[in-house]
Amino acid sequence: MIEVRLRGWRPDDVPAVLAAFAAPDMAQQSARPVDTPEAALEWMAFWGFRDDARAFAVTAGGEVVGNVAVSNIDAHDTGWVSYWTSPHARGRGVAAAATLLLAEWAFRERGLFRLELGHRLNNPASCAVAVKAGFAAEGIERAKLRYGHERFDVERHARLATD
């Protein structure tokens, strides 16, 4: 896997966030459009001030190339993992390497026991990321996600601190 690092999001990362969310597949990944510097700063701030979540900028060669996060941390020491990479960084193992680092951080620093994630069945690249990062497939959730008027089945994966 490619060498990546995780760090907190910074205001000077606005151009990288805007470039990532300009990709058509990324535009639907946020509840509100991330298409202005102000919106990018709001997106970063959303992740920066929560007790139930933590997001990291993913860097490779000093360049911001993605995001990994754990959110919805609950009383059962379980969190929900999400990730994205900028279009130009895809296919190089960035997301899998970053997700592996995130899992190690979540187990060690946050004391979580279980991490979950899900991907649309029509997204085999996301499935490959989950598997490479040590997340075992657990089953299909029918029609779980809706984008526009279309519903998508989701495959859930999980990784335990004991895996």
From TrEMBL:
It comes from the Bacteria. Residues 4-159 form the N-acetyltransferase domain. Pfam families: Acetyltransf_3 (PF13302). InterPro entries: Acyl_CoA_acyltransferase, GNAT_dom, Ribosomal_N-acetyltransferase. This is N-acetyltransferase domain-containing protein. It comes from Planomonospora alba.
